[in-house]
Write the structure tokens for this entry.
Amino acid sequence: MSTSNWNRYLEFFYRHDGLGLSLDISRMSFPSGFLAAMEPGAQKAYAAMKALEGGAIANPDENRMVGHYWLRDASLAPNAELRHAIEATLADVQDFAAQVHSGAVRPALFPKFERVLIVGIGGSALGPQLVADALGGPGDKMAVHFLDNTDPDGVARVLHAIGTDLGRTLVLVISKSGGTPETRNGMIEIQAAYKAKGLDFAPHAVAITGEGSNLDKVAVKEGWLKRFPMWDWVGGRTSIMSTVGLVGMALQGLDITGFLAGAREMDAATRGTGTRKNPAMLLALMWHHAGGGKGAKDMVVLPYKDRLVLFSKYLQQLVMESLGKENDLDGKTVHQGIAVYGNKGSTDQHAYVQQLRDGINNFFATLIEVREAGNTGVEVDPGTTSGDYLQGFLRGTRAALTEGGRENITISIPLVDARRLGALIALYERAVGFYATLVNVNAYHQPGVEAGKKAAARLLELQHKVRAALGAPATAAQIAGKIGADPEDTYHTLSHLAANGAAKLQAGPSPDADTFAA
């Protein structure tokens, strides 16, 4: 490293001594006056975040507060009722897990529950999956499985993995509204699997949902084993420290206390208004610099640790659902957002790092370093371990990217444990909130997701109409004309029905010549 690079590294290096977390933005090529020029925007973002933490209506679309920060520090909640609800629910989660582990809460036919099946989608699956994979291991108190799609083949694979232990499996069904189609379908599939085995589903079922939701009503009516609340002031992509993430963590036997403590420590560090000492603001400003405040460059996340392989997937939802907006807060069309992708190092050095180094320069990279290698003690070369190689590949990739004029950030943590994972998540949550203010968008709603759900509902309604219209052989266009539908949508619906035995297909030389019959 040249003297100038070393000096820049020292100038723009941040370290949290308590957590052992550091942030290096020295390889981002922002000009010398950039931070000063962005300071008014940064101060506005600090003020907006302070108001949010204080209980301001941060999501006017739904007239609700956004309070995921209160989950790791209930003292911040704006009233005593919320503080009590957070604290009482956390205690309830821990008590329930302890009863399950001891066998005080048990299945009817077996002495203990031994497995957990989590049914959810989006934030109700990505967060629990990240935590389970990053922190889990052979010593876990319960094995964990996930059903996170409405794919029948996926259901079959999960049930095959559970095998003869279905009666020893506790099922968590997670949906705030209780109407999420993928989660509802998964629940119905699992209920059917229990029935096929002659087992009563309700004593194995736990609902994590909003009070009074459709799922809550089902759980009450059917007498499910347990219900935990999901509050309307916690969004799905920031729900990992609510019951959504904590119930599964507790049942798996993971360190909830450390997880929340790490997030709380990072929140304290990122609450200050001194930009040079605020790692979340530094991250947000680097994103703004890299993409010109318009998301012009993608964010590539490369964790150099197998335990963090799902972190980039988790960040895809956190960043893209929060920042990907058509309109800004003033109603102007802006089409904001930052695309996120990544896998892990050094795997990606054999995949797309070639393009990152030599191809189109349309990204900035974030390398996540875990300093403790966890070596087996095996030397793969004299005096060199596999962990030494991993460190070498990280530093080598960082150098190669820099030499190629590719901007990059490095975040380092001492090890992957509950406390540091909580801190990493909290760091990115606040960076996303800060960046949203910098570009004047609402980070806490998701109109595009709702539009997709409505479109899916329309197409399912179309499927019912198409099935009713099936009779003698006819083309998609003929059937579409009969029911007043779009021919292409009708054709794809008919193809789906034919592939699954609900229609007969006579293939022609082209789609417009294919005929379908009952």
Notes: The longest strand covers residues 363-370. The chain has three domains: 3-55+259-445, 68-254, 448-517. The mean pLDDT is 95.
